[in-house]
Amino acid sequence: MGAYQIRGGSPLRGVIPIHGAKNSLLPILAATLVTKGECVLHNCPRISDADVALAILRSLGCEARREGQTLIVNTYPACETEIPAVLMQKMRAAVIFLGALLARFGAARLTHPGGCRLGNRPIDLHLLGLRLMGAQCEYEGEELLCRAAKLRGATVALPFPSVGATENLILAALGCDGEVVLCNAAREPEIADLCGFLTACGARIEGAGTSVVRIRGGCALHGTEFTVMPDRMEAATYLCAAAATRGEITLTHTEPAHLRAVTDVLADGGCEITQYARQITLRCDTLRAVSPIRTAPYPAFPTDAQAPVMAAMATAQGVSVFEETIFSDRFRHVPALVRMGAKITATRRYAVVEGVETLHGACVEATDLRGGAAMVIAALAAHGSSTVLRSEHTERGYAALVQSLRDCGGQIIDTE
Ligand code: UD1
């Protein structure tokens, strides 16, 4: 179990280059399985979730190696259709291998995916779409068995634009006879990136990144070279850390257009934000409470930024209200922020944050990936020393978190 020791109270100042996106890389690694060749992926962050995805690929018979920020995956030798339970329980995105296995082999055996505990996280929408494509999906005890001699084209209308279900169904559709039309698909930029990768491999996909995606199945896919898009949640986290510490940072290698919902909120709070083509600078002298924030599917305010923004608003002047509509239990970071002196009252759906003048150091335990990031932000802003236990949660999704913050003057060390 790792921990961060943080001495707070100094403004962050400096430049942080943003890494490749976790939520793009993971489905792309699953997608390599549908190709039968070598894929060279650039801008791949060193995060533990990527290691899990590589372990899954290897357990299926693929070859995978890392050279710096580049991953080289050869899926030609893949021969297994079963994902070990120990790997499934390590991250939610492991379930995206289901669609890829069905497309490649017409069969998959796996257990329910683990990942951050944010409330109930069923996979009914994934299975709904797969069944419409002709897959038989049955549980045998804890194991889910999916089979399809041949997947068929279908129109799938998702009752909710689930990110994971959209990705899974796009991958499964590649193995169909005919066309799959996915309606009410999620529009997160990571889905467009996944489709960009697949198109580079020879897939025929229309409407990527919109709510209607058409996938023509049956095209033989080849390997390719591809650069993963920048991580918008890593960027959002550092912007919040700069706001919380009343600092000034510049993020490079980022995509400002993907961050609009977050930068609009921070600008509403009084931060000065300057955007260039691949760069954002945020400067914060005083921070005010913001208009009510409601999480919702892209392009609205992202649930993954809710905890980091809340940590920043803990010391803003006035009252900010958060409504979480995506996950049923995503305020698990609140008790830790309260221990640091924040004034927050939360129900399952709403959190009311009354900004205080200063936070103070405390020993807290990361509850999940973004909740842990929120605690790091609060600790950087707080007076005194803090310990954030269970840093393995943040290491799932942030590459070089400690180094990036230290480069901007943050007093943080990893005690592992
Ligand atoms: C992805 C992201 C995660 C982000 C989330 C929402 C990855 C690896 N993870 O997670 O960081 O917080 O999108 O933007 O990309 N749901 C169902 N049935 C289903 C599927 C989902 O009820 O079959 C519900 C979930 O329980 C949740 C909501 O839909 O309440 C959103 O889930 P979804 O969009 O699928 O998120 P993930 O793909 O798990």
List the helices and strands and how they pair.
Elements: E1 3-8, E2 13-17, H1 22-31, E3 38-42, H2 48-59, E4 63-67, E5 70-74, H3 85-88, H4 96-105, E6 107-111, H5 124-132, E7 136-140, E8 143-147, E9 151-157, H6 163-173, E10 176-183, H7 189-200, E11 204-206, E12 212-216, E13 225-227, H8 232-244, E14 248-252, H9 260-268, E15 272-275, E16 280-283, E17 293-294, H10 306-313, E18 319-323, H11 334-339, E19 343-346, E20 350-354, E21 363-365, H12 369-381, E22 384-389, H13 392-395, H14 401-407, E23 411-414
Parallel strand pairs: 2-14, 3-13, 9-10, 17-18, 21-22
Antiparallel strand pairs: 1-22, 1-23, 3-5, 4-5, 6-8, 7-8, 10-12, 11-12, 14-16, 15-16, 18-20, 19-20
Helix pairs in contact: 1-2, 1-7, 4-6, 5-6, 8-10, 8-12, 10-12
Uridine-diphosphate-N-acetylglucosamine binds near residues 164 and 302.
What would you say this structure looks like, in words?
- The chain has 416 residues and is an alpha+beta fold.
- The chain is 31% helix and 26% strand.
- The strands form 6 sheets. A 4-stranded mixed sheet has the order 21-22-1-23.
- Uridine-diphosphate-N-acetylglucosamine binds at residues 23, 26, 92-93, 120-126, 160, 162-165, 186, 302-304, 326-327.
- Uridine-diphosphate-N-acetylglucosamine is lined by residues 23, 26, 92-93, 120-126, 160, 162-165, 186, 302-304, 326-327.
Can you describe this structure in just a few lines?
Helices cover 31% and strands 26% of the residues. It is α+β, with helices and mostly antiparallel strands.
Using only C-alpha atoms, the radius of gyration works out to 21 Å
- What small ligands are held by the chains? uridine-diphosphate-N-acetylglucosamine
> Can you list the strand order of the major beta sheet?
21-22-1-23
Mean pLDDT equals 96
CATH class of the largest domain: Alpha Beta
CATH homolog superfamily of the largest domain: Enolpyruvate transferase domain
CATH topology of the largest domain: UDP-n-acetylglucosamine1-carboxyvinyl-transferase, Chain
Helix content: 25-40%
Record field, number of beta strands: 23
Structural class: alpha+beta
CATH architecture descriptor text of the largest domain = Alpha-beta prism
Cα end-to-end separation: 7 Å
Query: How many independent structural domains?
Result: 2
Shape: elongated
Strand content: 25-35%
Major β-sheet profile = 4 strands, mixed
DSSP summary: helix tally: 14
Runs in which pLDDT lies below 50 for 5 or more consecutive residues are none
